[in-house]
Amino acid sequence: MVGAVTPEYRALLPGALLAEPYPEARGPVRRTARDWVVDVVFFLFSVMLALLLAAYSYERGIDELRTTLDLAVGLLCCLGLWARRRWPVGLAVAVTAAGLWSATSVGAAIVAFFTVVVHRRFAVAAALGVAGFAGGFVFPLLRPEWSSDPYWVDIVWAAVVTLLILAWGLVVRARRQLVHSLRDRAHRAEAEQRLRVAQARQAERARIAREMHDVLAHRISLLSLHAGALEFRPDAPAPEVARAAGVIRASAHEALQELREVIGVLRDDPADEAPDRPQPTLADLPGLVDESRAAGMRVRLDRRVDDLAAVPVAVGRNAYRIVQEGLTNARKHAYGSTVDVIVAGAAGDGLSVEVRNPWPVGVPAGPPIPGTGTGIVGLTERATLAGGRLEHGRTAGGDFRLWAWLPWPA
Predict the structure, then answer these.
(1) Residue closest to 111 by CA, chosen among 136, 140, 80
(2) Helix-strand-coil percent breakdown of the chain, rounded to 5?
């Protein structure tokens, strides 16, 4: 169909101009409104030309029976044009054969040959063009009453008409193929754009998932510890109960605030007057350690960086999340153990972060704190994306060690 994007134009090969723009039809041809207009115009053109040539034949006094028979053949060829979209080559061959004797079939022959040039390979169109040109040699011999010019003039006119139709068809063919190619490229560009958007959304969702895990796992583990303490010590003094309840309330409030902070990127139209809270940096690490100590953990912080605020924001945020996850894992799996946090490095040498605690022995008291089991995987990906590396596992001394190195540009 005219205007449809066909599979032949998907590859956009250098030899596209030699390909058939429309495959052989297999089934009913469905015409668009534009197709109907074109077909009707071509049909009326061929019919009017046949009637004019028949009237000219009658006026010249050519045998009426031969003229009537010629007109009947010409009108049959015109009716055959309605099948030109389904069998263009077969129709062109039939009309060319009829044109060896019928003068009124010339309009249908022009339309059929033009259709083949536009819709089929150049080799097929050239072969039919040669056949039509050869018909110019035969027609004056079979119908000499139609020719009042020298024989060579008829041959020249046959060659000129054939070349004009061929050139016109090739121009239309090239234009249609250009339109198809541009349309196909536009479709591909749209598909690639949708793919890039989908990939960006997927990457953003993965980043948000990592942030939610790093942030909420820490807060919720604190809530679980304090709630467990209240469960195991229901007879605790009122001040201790009030203190634990206050820590639970504060931790829940912080968890909600950080959850809002993480998923704030999902808002389609964030309010300018309510910007998102800044992400934590390495300068917030002492506060994280103090918070864990307040929850009952024994944490020792070894700072070997003079100014934590001097660490770049992106590097400091990644280091903060690594320590946060390390403390969360220690609280889950080795509660009661002493955790050592070591931060060292300098500009140009990189920043190293280490969280070390004794390997847990036995079953921890109380119900286990649930987890997804993907925290270390997320940290590894975070460090890799930042251009660093991460190691974790049991050391020869029996400790569990989480270590990461992140680039710190000079």
Answers:
(1) 80
(2) 65, 10, 25
SS3 state at 23 = coil
What is the model's pLDDT at position 274? 45
Question: Which two three-digit tokens encode residue 161?
Answer: 């008409």
Ordered alpha helix ranges (H), 264-362: 285-294, 313-333
Evaluate whether 323 touches 390 at the Cβ level (below 8 Å): no
> Which amino acid does the sequence have at 69?
L
- What are the DSSP calls for 66-117, one per residue? HHHHHHHHHHHHHHHGGGTTTSHHHHHHHHHHHTTT-STTHHHHHHHHHHHH
Domains of the chain: 31-193 (no CATH), 279-361+371-410 (3.30.565.10)
Other CB atoms within a 10 A radius of the CB of residue 387 amount to: 12
CA distance 171 to 184: 20
Sign of CA dihedral 25, 31, 34, 40: positive
Amino acid present at 201 = R
Residues of the chain with pLDDT under 70: 1-29, 147-149, 204-205, 207-219, 222, 225-226, 228-234, 257-278, 361-374
pLDDT of residue 374: 60
Reference 343, options 355, 358, 335, 331; nearest CA is: 355
pLDDT digits (tens, 9 = 90+) for 318-348: 899 899 888 888 888 887 789 999 999 998 8
103 neighbors 57 (Cβ within 8 angstroms): yes
Q: What is the pLDDT of residue 135?
A: 78
Structural contact between residues 341 and 323, judged by C-beta atoms closer than 8 angstroms: yes
Distance CA 289, CA 308 (A): 14
19-42 per-residue burial string, b: 16 or more CB within 10 A, e: under 16: eebbeeeeeeeeeeeeeeeebeeb
Neighbours of 135 (CB within 10 A): 19
CA distance 246 to 268: 35
